[in-house]
Design a protein that fits this description.
Blueprint: E1 2-5, E2 9-16, H1 21-34, E3 39-49, H2 51-66, E4 71-74, H3 78-86, E5 94-95
Helix pairs in contact: 1-2
GO molecular function: anti-sigma factor antagonist activity
Family: Belongs to the anti-sigma-factor antagonist family.
Pfam families: STAS_2
Length: 107
């Protein structure tokens, strides 16, 4: 897993899972704490995430809200969009451009 960027926009790549969760949490919390306005997470380079990785994103979302910021997901790959829809988190998290639920392939 790699995260590059600053307190306004971060690009997350690789796997966001139980192995990388602690490092990702540290970087995301620092970005939330050090910035102002929307924090954009570009997930276009993300290969996969598991429940722990999704929990890290939700934790960053909650922390951003407490700091008066908004976490915005950009470039969410289709398979991860399906997970957001299945867990109904697409209703809670801000996804740039939204998620076209009707256009997602069924599994």
């Amino acid at each position: 897993m790699h995260i590059k960027g600053d307190h306004a926009e971060l690009v997350v790549g690789g796997r966001l899972d139980v192995v990388s969760a602690a490092d990702a949490r540290t970087v995301l919390h620092s970005a939330v704490d050090d910035g102002a306005g929307d924090l954009v997470l570009d997930l276009s380079e993300l290969d996969s995430w598991d429940a722990t990785g999704l929990g890290v994103i939700m934790g960053a979302h909650r922390r951003a809200g407490r700091c008066g910021r908004r976490l915005v997901l950009r470039g969410v790959p289709p398979q991860m969009q399906r997970l957001l829809v299945a867990t109904r988190l697409h209703r809670i998290l801000a996804v740039e451009g939204g998620i076209g639920v009707e256009s997602l392939p069924r599994v």
